[in-house]
Amino acid sequence: MRITKKARIEACRELIDRNHIDIPFSSECLEEFKRLTRLDFIEGAIRRKNLEYPSDPRHVHILVSGVELDKSWKKQITGRDLVSDQKKAMRKSVAADMAEFMSGYEGGCEFCGSFFDLSVDHDAPPFDDIANAFLEENPSIVIARRGCGGGKLIADPSIEAMWVSFHAARATYQILCRSCNSSKGKRVLP
Predict the structure, then answer these.
(1) Is residue 70 part of a domain?
(2) pLDDT in tens, 162-177
(3) Distance from C-alpha of 91 to C-alpha of 38, rounded to nearest angstrom
(4) Which residues share a beta bridge with 176?
(5) ∠ at Cα 98 (78, 145), nearest 5°?
(6) Same domain for 43 and 95?
(7) Is residue 189 part of a domain?
(8) What tens digit of pLDDT does each residue of 64-96 get?
(9) pTM for this one?
């Protein structure tokens, strides 16, 4: 019987939730994980804290030839998405600008006033709109990875500089708490 991607993702989530952080998957869980992700070649799997995204509750490292690797189990099921990878690299390229904006901020969430879990958010236009406009002009941005788990980066420094400048000319920021940012999505808050 064929299982849908959605069902495989949900089964994988449930499997990961059954395992504790920093404890290797049992042989039974490993076999199920290998079947769901089609990572037949792995020797082991272990749930870890995600240092890049601390709120990620289902981060898994795999063991290949005795080496622990950080590999997305979900992308193994859904397949890679070039535009999504490009946008991740683009976000990373403007992270310093966003951090600088946050460093000078002393208030709470601009929507609800909370002082907890604050983050910088693109106000108007949303990040995706700015990124899509740049990608229309530069559709073939090449993505590179730096080291194991180093994340995606724009490979060509001159294109990265063009992107950072393009973004800076269009982006406006606001500070939101995690809850307001999540509920906002790509909408512009009143």
Answers:
(1) yes
(2) 999 999 999 999 999 9
(3) 29
(4) 119
(5) 40
(6) no
(7) no
(8) 888 888 888 998 888 877 788 889 899 999 999
(9) 0.60
